[in-house]
Amino acid sequence: RAKKAKGCGYQFFSEELNHQAVDRLHKEMKLRNALTDNELELYYQPKVHLDTGKVMGVEALVRWHDPENGMIPPGEFIPLAEETGLILPMSEWILEQACYQVVSWQQSLSMPLKMAVNLSVRQFQDPLFVQNVADILRKTGVNPALIELEITESMLMENMDTVLPMLDELKQLGVSLAIDDFGTGYSSLAYLKKMPIDVLKVDRAFVQDLPHDQNDCAITRAVILMAQQLGLNVVAEGIEDLTQAEFLTDNGCQLGQGFYFSRPLRLDDLESLLADSGLLAAGSAGQSGHMG
Ligand code: C2E
Ligand code: MG
Ligand code: MG
Ligand code: MG
């Protein structure tokens, strides 16, 4: 293990570091390189109209192709990226990439697709965050109305005082805002009313046992009703079968995502799907690759 750190100036100290610390340093170095070496890739999961299956938008989900260990899901590297601060340059790359993709689709798609991008709690601790978003929107020339930023409910609730004013500023840039993983973060209804939010995304945990679990049925119904009362759109996450989709549509939820409709896809595969559903002119698939 000490040998792994060879050439990085750590040899002398490595005997005092335990395995975990060295391992972590190694991971951190690799993650740092992931950005500069182009090892990150955006996958896109379709967001569909539940009745028709028609694609209404996509959510960008980052993946890391680690040359040593293959593809690593975000749950395994976002926490480290957040601890080290790497999440800030990483998130800028993600947003920029997503915006360029939308711009490219503005030429090739017969109907505009909305792009949802996940935010990290760390971005709200960065005083330059809103300015950075504004810069990326301007630089890419994207129509901000096609960008939806997702904030988890827990991020919001734990940092209400700093996050709320920033949400107002983000809204003024013309983007829309969604609360992700809704139902897991104990938000108070009073706060929800005060927030400049457009969309509630019902957490997968409530969807997975529909329509069998009576509690989950009740909770999901209540969230859908509440969203309607507050004038918000509601999107169900993690739909894996037809009975879940039917329960949701029967109860007034129009939009959803999940493996039943599509897994998160590489750009090529998404564009094939869009071509198959007539949204993308045949022959355009694969030609609107990543820019920047
Ligand atoms: P999320 O934003 O709630 O994304 C939904 C997650 O659920 C994705 O996992 C997706 O692949 C998965 N999923 C979608 N449909 C189904 C389904 O039917 N069944 C099951 N079992 N899972 C489903 P993924 O891509 O591993 O992302 C996990 C989390 O990592 C995301 O949760 C989000 O919080 C975070 N994340 C992903 N990409 C980014 C990013 O670009 N930036 C930031 N800051 N966080 C990200
Ligand atoms: Mg999300
Ligand atoms: Mg979610
Ligand atoms: Mg989640």
Measured as a percent range, the helix fraction is 40-55%
Structural class: alpha/beta
Report on the biggest sheet.
Answer: 8 strands, mixed, barrel
Q: Quote the distance from N terminus to C terminus.
A: 37 Å
Mean pLDDT across all amino acids: 90
Label the overall shape: globular
DSSP, total strands: 9
* Count of helical regions: 12
Low-confidence stretches: 288-292
Widest beta sheet: strand line-up: 1-2-4-5-6-7-8-9
Small-molecule binders: ligand C2E, magnesium ion
What is the ordering of alpha helices and beta strands? HHEEEHHEHEHHEHEHHEHEH
Task: Evaluate the radius of gyration.
Answer: 20 Å
Give the strand content.
Answer: 15-25%
Describe the structure.
The chain is an alpha/beta fold. The chain has an 8-stranded mixed barrel, surrounded by 6 helices. Helix 4 packs parallel to helix 5. The protein is globular, with a radius of gyration of 20 Å. The structure holds ligand C2E and magnesium ion (MG) (3 copies).
List the keywords:
alpha/beta; 12 helices; 9 strands; globular; binds ligand C2E; binds magnesium ion; cyclic-guanylate-specific phosphodiesterase
